[in-house]
Structures are given as structure tokens and as C-alpha cells.
Amino acid sequence: MRIIAICFFILASINVMAQERLKKVEFYGAAKTNILHQSYDVEGDTSNVTKANYGHSLIDLGILLRPSANTEVATELRIRNELGGFWGGAVSYGIRRLTLKGVVNDAIRYKIGDIDLEMTPYTLFNNGYQDVVNEATVFQMAREVIDYEYYFTDNAWRQQGIQSDFGFNLNNETFNSIDVNIFTVRNRVPDLNAALPERLFTGGQVALNTAYGPLTYHSANLHDLKNTVNDINLYYNSVNSLSASVQLPEAPDFTLDYEGGISKANYEDLLTKEQTTIKDYYWNLGLTYEPSDKLKLRVNAINTGPQFRSPAAQTIRLGYSSSSNIFPTIGNDLSIRKMGLLDYLYNDVMYNRTFDDNLDLYNPAFSNAMPYGLATPNRKGISLSLNDYTIENKFKISSDIHFISEIIGSGTSNLKSFFKAVVKANYQHKKWSVNAGLTHENTSREGQSIEAIDLSTMLIDFGLDYNVTDKIALLLGSKYHTANGNELVPVYDNYNNPLVFEPVSFNDNRQSLHSLGLMVQFSERSTLIASASTFSQVDVRDYSLNQFQILYRLNF
Amino acid sequence: MRNIIYILIAVVFLSCERSNPDFLGGSLNDQFGELLVLDSLKSSESDFNFLSSSPRFFEAQWSKNLNWQLDVVGTQSGATKTFTGFSSQIDFDNTSWNGSANDFPSFLTENCVATLFLADNVDTITMSTTITITDLKPLQENLILVADFEQGMPVNTIEFVQQGESMTFDIASGQAASGLSYYAMGGIVNWDYYLGSIKVPVETEEFSNVSPLLLYFNMAVIGGVAGEVPGNQFIKIYMREDDGERYSYELNPVDWDSWRLISVPYSDFVLESDAANNTKDPGTINQIEIMSLSCPSGPGTIVGGGSACPENMGLEVKTNIDFIAFSTNESYQP
Fold first, then answer.
1. Which among B20, B23, B28 has the least Cβ separation from residue A450?
2. N or C, fewer C-beta in 10 Å, chain A?
3. Minimal CA–CA distance to B119: which of B73, B72, B69, B80?
4. Which residues does chain A have within 8 Å of residue B20's beta carbon, measured at their own beta carbons?
5. What is the CATH number of the domain that holds B52?
6. Are A503 and A532 in contact (CB under 8 A)?
7. B23 closest CB neighbour out of A283, A408, A448
8. CATH number at residue B216
9. Which residues does chain B have within 8 Å of residue A407's beta carbon, measured at their own beta carbons?
């Protein structure tokens, strides 16, 4: 209470000062209370606790300082109190964000501190969630909490370092201008005990904007900094690529775009003085047909080499095979509980923030065709997509179909084939809005019994919102996931080459999550959601979870 | 400009090459395939004459790559030759045999049993075949055999044996490291480290231009079973040169109970006498002395000082030797 009072006092004082010099100081912030009650149900289980209550309240106070016309300092201070942390016992304080940005000579923009970085899906890209197609509002609200906590903004990675961008006007009809964007960030702190050196991520883009479209060079380099520890190994990975987008003059509704590049991973063993270098390339060629704002069709061909290495684009956002501390074990034999859709949305599963030089473990039940997005190594194929086709401003549909195969077989000369179809639809009518999505993946490989693969997975999202009044809405959300068949998942060595293959099988595994929520919007900036959810998993060990959540959010 | 972009794209397409292995990673057949024997174990010929130039090897083929082991064991000598590898077959390339053994004892002209062990996570398969060694392998080039005790002691060998119990300093037969005879050194001397020795004259003029780094002293040595012999028994070797310099090497302890090749470059020997030219001259070595030593159990005064080792009370020293030879450039292959 005392802390809240002090904060309020500081806030009020600064606010008075700010009113005097309004443009110099601005405040913003967010407050949130998230309370969850979960109960767990397994028949005959007497060895595990069956109920869990947890949650937190937090205030993020953002302060925007403008000491000069060209300089801005943004910081976010956080006070967080865990549910049950009485008398300040579980209060934590911290700085959530600190960024200095400005403009030098009205020409060169710079940012120092916490920055969000994104380039292309092959160079620097935070691939989206694999358990989402077109999520219901009630789930989106929970997802936003995760995104906010882990700094996931679209496909950008939150990093800490320095970034600068500037441009040149070329005063030429063909070559209009050049835009330059460069950055260097600290991706890993040194670990003296494990002899892991400091790791930097450096790169940038140089775009030549022409009358026909942009031609852009991209560079992404993850590299260890020598002598920050007693070095044993040093790692360096670079991806250099070129992208272009050209509108065809003979057919202005068509746009041709291309990205191609080369990766080079270098592993230096300072003890044996041996170097291992792995190189490969990728290309992506697309043709887009966009006759109007309402229709956009695209055909795309990809070829990503088996040795293509791009940690900043191949790191998986959410560890779908990770575990949670909420009901970590199941059954009287205390075996590890397999996580599911509810855990990915509400519980403390693993999220990556730094880039892994080793390809992350992935769960083929959620994404097997392209677990690392477009940067997934050893893939070739074509895809067809329809983007946001709108009918009478009420119905909107998007669709992607991918026909992919391996370039080189894994453990056998026979190739795996992947089929992936994604459909998303939204419908809005008066007080009703419906959103639905479906992802279906099929993986197959012919051959002897030891190499044959047949895996089918499906993820369905469904949401129904009914606005009772302007400020009250009933929310219904469902997620349904199935997996059936088998796969041989590669276990990679230190150089990301498959070493052995781990057999995994899914015997008509199913999991479903259903939520019913009530959303009350007290104002544009203040929302309360109360939801009741039920989750069930049919797997080697069946179980179900029930959940009640109260989520209050306030932006100011 | 557009053409430039098209050309650029074409160049990138055409300039990239990718190595194409059959597949990535370990073979699924190796990891999960059934282990089946496709061709049983057989030898290239039934009689192995290691004096002839024709190749001698073993053959077999099975269904998957795995770690295999082929052991050839002499039925009389107990000598063993082991071949190992990771493949789905054995042939001339990986089991070609020149008649050598892993270590002493060496093979005799005898029958041998070759056994191939194949194992994956599920199955274990063992196959055997028999061959006969009709002629032993020739000795290595540039090898000087000092003593193998097959025809008695080398000429002008000097033996010295201390007073003690059960003193055995003599040629013995059976279960030798090479051939049928070896030299036994042992007994119990409870008042002195020194049990006895043999001094064997040698002529090494042909090694005059050989570097001490490349001249190897080879000898087969066997101790005894732990608990039955002193744990700290050892052998000391002296090399005497024409100029009076004496170089020594100590093999301490001798605590193994099967024949073992000891191969030491002359450069590892240390000067133990007054220096003459203080240079190891391999071509001037004229005598080798092999001494059997052990900490005496006492009681009483120990010759040369030091304290006794009561734990050796009643334990009979056993430091038997065989096949003393010099080789150049490499160790002797038993």
C-alpha cells in the first residue's frame, strides 16, 4: 500500500511538472490484473495436487522524455505483485524498457537501448505461434498478455543495442533513393562458468528504391565476441541476401518478387584449432496478382537448402515441447504432463528471447511442414495464397496451400512430402461476429516400414462474439487440435546436421479448449474479462483442466 | 533496370551449387533396420601362410552399418588379433591380416578361431570360422633380435642371482610371449631390492645413423596375479655403450599378469653413469642388462638403505621376460 502511495505521489508530482512543459514529458502506461484458477482432473490420480490459484497485478509506467527537439527517451517502470504476495513480500520492481532515440542533423535517426528488429523471413524474423490460425477474441485477449510480456510485436524480436537508419535522395527518375538501416545488438551475455562468450547480432539493410520497385540487400550476422571469456569455441553465422520487387509493365496487376541469399556458419574450436564451415543458399520467387483491393492471389516457389542456417529467423518463439510448473506431473507415477493448448495460452511455458545456434526442438503435431517458417532448412515447393478476399464487407476469407518436399532425404534417399492448407474466415453481422480458421498438415514418405511416414494434424480455431451492448460482449472461443500418425524427428548434432531420428507417434491424439467469457469495456482504455474454460487432452495419458480467469486491463 | 534485376536473379540461380549426399544424417536402415546376415563369415583361405605375399583376410556381409568386432584367437598360444570397424561388411579393406597379434603373446603355427560379433540395439549375432597358421609372419625389417630364449641363453650372457628363497632365474617353457620359451626372473630376497639380472651382449653397429628417437627397445614382460606377487616389483634396464656410459629405464611397477609388449625409444633412457660424451649413440650399445627388483619385506637392515615393505612378506617376485629386440622407426609388432 505504501509503495502504491509513493508511486501515486511521484506520478502526481511529475504530472504537475509535465503540465508545465507538456511537450517535454509525457506519461503513458498499463495496469493489469490477471487471476487464474485452474483445477486438474485425472481419474484415480491421488498423488498430484488438483487445484492451483495464481496470477499477478502489475503497473507499467511509461515516461517519455524529450530533452531536445531531436531526442527522446522512453522508459517503462514496472511494479509487479504476485497473487498472494501479501505486504509486499512478492513485489518486484524493474525497468521494462529503456530506449533513447533521436535524429542527428535531421538526417540520421538512431535508437539506443531496447529495440524491436525485423527484416525478412530468412534473415531476421520472429515466426508466429504454431497453435493459432484465426483465434477467438477471448483467446486473443490472453495472447496479447503473452505478447506484451515477452515483447512480441508482429514478427519482430526485442533486442538490446543500437540501431540507426538514414537515406539519400538520388534525384534520379529511375533510381529514386537509398535507405540504409543498420544495427548491432547484444544477443547473449557471457557465461564465464560455461565458457560461453558474449554474442552480438549485427546487420542491416540497404534498399535502392527504383521506379520499378525496391532492390534490397540484407545482412544478418550472429557472432561471438572473442576474449569475453576464456574462449573454447567461437561461433559465427552470416546470412546475406538480395530481394527485389518488380511490377510487370506489360501486366500492371502482376508483381514479381524475389529473395535469395547465402548462409555461412563457422564453428571454430580453439583447443583443436579446427574450423568447420557450413554454407548453403535459399531462394524465394513469387508472383502476385492483385487486380483490385478485394482480391490478391499469389503463387510462390521456395527452395531453402538443407544446410541453410539463420538463427535469427529459425528460432522458434514458443517451445511446444517445453513444460509448465502448473501441474507439472500426471498420474500416480508422477510422469511429466504433456503440455497443451491451455498451457500455451495461460501457463509458464518456455519462450525464446535470444537466438539459438542450434535448431530448436519442435513439435511435429503443431508444425511439421515448416516448423521454422520460411527459413526451415531442406524444403522446396510451391504455395498458392488468397489474401483477405472480401464479400459485401461482411465476409472475409484468406487461404494458403503449400505443396512442399524435402530437397535431400533424412536418413534415407526417399523424400518427405508435406501438404499444408490454411483457411481463415471472418464474418460480421450486426451484433454478431464469427471468426474461424483451420490448418491441416499432412506429412508422408513412401518406403519400407522403417522409413514410411504418415502424419496428419489439424488445428481448428472458432470464435463467436455477441455484443450485448456497446460495452458488454459475450465471447465464445474454441480450439481443437488433432494429430494422428508417425514421424521421425531429427536430433541434431552441434552443427545442426541430423544425427539420429527420434520416432514419435500420435494415436489419434486430440486436445480441445473451450472458453466462454464476458467482456465489459468500462471505457476505451479499460476492459474486464471473466472467462471459464475447459481443456481436455486425449493422449498417452488423458487429462482435463478447468480454468476460471479474471483479466483486467487498463491503458492510460 | 528491370533487366538488371532479371539478370541478377538469374545469376543468383545459376551461381549456386549444393553438394548432394544421398541423404542427411545417419541412415534409418542403420538405426531401425533389422540385422540380417547376408554372407556368413569366411576366410580368404583356410591356411594362412604369412610368408607368402597373397592377401589373407576375412569376409562377411550383413544388412546394416554397425560397430563390429572380429577376434582371431590362437588355440595354443592364446594370442589375439582384433579388428574393429563401422560398416556393413568385412573384406580385404578392413580385415587384411599380416599375422601380428594385438600384443604378446604372438601367434604360433597353430589353429585359430575367428569370431565376428555384430550387435545393434535389438539383436546380437556371433559367427565363427577356423583357420590354420602354417607359417608365421617374418620379422620386421631392421629388427635385431637380442634374445628369444628358444635356443637357450644368448652367447656370453651373464646371469646374477641373489641369495634368497625360491630364486628362479632360468629359461622356462610353455605359455611364452613368443615361441615356446621365455626367461623367468623371480624369487624372494627380503634384504635387498635387487633379486638378480642378466647381462646380454649386443652389437648395434647398424644403428649408428639411427636417431635415439627412432630406436626402440622392445621386450615382452609379464608379472603375476595381484596379491600373489609384490605390488611394487619392477624391472630396470641398463644400456651400456662403448664409452662407458650407462643409460637406464625403469619399468615400475610390473603389476600385470599377462604378456605385454614394452617398447621404449632409446631417447627415453636416462644417463645414470658418469658422462663420457653425454650423447646417446645407438650404434655403440654393447650390453643390455635386465634387472629384477622389488622392495624387500625385511626384517633387518635393507641393503642400500630405505625402509622395508612388510606387506611383501612371503610374496614371490615374478618378472618374466621374453623376446628382447631392437626395432627402428616403430615399435615391434608381436
1. B28
2. N
3. B69
4. 408
5. 2.60.40.10
6. no
7. A408
8. 2.60.120.430
9. 18
Q: List residues of B whose CB lies inside 8 A of any A CB.
A: 1-2, 5, 8-9, 12-13, 16, 18, 20-29, 31-33
Complex ipTM value: 0.80
Which residue reads 641363453 in cell numbers? B153
Residue B334 lies in a domain: no
Compute φ and ψ for A143, nearest 5 degrees: -65, -35
Distance CA B7, CA A46 (A): 70
Same domain, B99 and B155: no
What's the confidence (pLDDT) of residue A249?
Answer: 78
Give the integer Cα–Cα distance in Å for A490 and A368: 11
Whether A115 and A183 have beta carbons less than 8 Å apart is answered as yes
User: Are B9 and A285 within 8 A, CB to CB?
Assistant: yes
- Domain count for chain B, please give it: 2
Task: Examine the domain organization and report whether B151 and B105 are in the same domain.
Answer: no
Do A415 and A402 form a contact (C-beta atoms < 8 A)?
no
Query: What pLDDT score was predicted for residue A16?
Result: 44
The whole domain housing B191 covers: 144-328
> Quick check: B26 and A503 CB within 8 A?
no
Smallest CA–CA separation between B13 and chain A, in Å? 8
Identify all chain A residues contacting B16, using CB atoms and an 8 Å cutoff: 260, 262, 281, 283
Q: Which CATH class is domain A107-555?
A: mainly beta
Residues B118 and B156 in one domain: no
Residues of B in contact with A208 (CB under 8 A): none
Residue B170 located in a structural domain? yes
Domain end marker among B112, B135, B158: B135
Nearest-Cα distance to chain B for A283, in Å, is: 8
Check residue A14 and give its pLDDT. 44
CA distances from A290 to A247, A299, A401 (A): 11, 12, 18
In the DSSP assignment, the letter for residue B229 is: B
SS3 label, residue B208: coil
State which of B81, B112, B135 marks the end of a domain.
B135
Mutate to test the interface with B, among A172, A216, A217, A258 (most CBs of B within 10 A): A258
Same domain, B246 and B281: yes
Q: What is the mean pLDDT of each run of 10 residues along chain A (556 residues)?
A: 42 45 80 92 84 91 91 93 75 92 92 96 95 95 91 94 95 92 95 92 96 93 93 94 89 92 95 94 95 90 95 91 84 88 89 89 93 96 93 91 96 96 95 96 95 97 96 96 96 90 94 97 93 92 92 92
Does one domain contain both B130 and B32? yes
CB contact under 8 A, A410 and B29: no
Asked if B58 and B111 sit in the same domain, the reply is yes
C-alpha closest to that of A169 among A154, A183, A180: A180
Number of neighbours of residue A13 by Cβ within 10 angstroms: 10
The predicted pLDDT at position A7 comes to 42
If you search the block for the grid coordinates 532515440, which residue do you land on? A101
For residue A283, which residues of chain B lie inside 8 Å, CB to CB?
Answer: 12-13, 16
Question: Is A127 near chain B, with CB under 8 Å?
Answer: no
Please report whether residue B5 resides in a domain. no
Does A216 contact chain B (CB < 8 Å)? no
Smallest Cβ–Cβ distance between B12 and the set A211, A283, A307 belongs to A283
- A and B: number of Cβ contacts within 8 A: 86
Q: Is there a single domain that holds both residue B258 and residue B120?
A: no
Domain ranges across chain A: 107-555
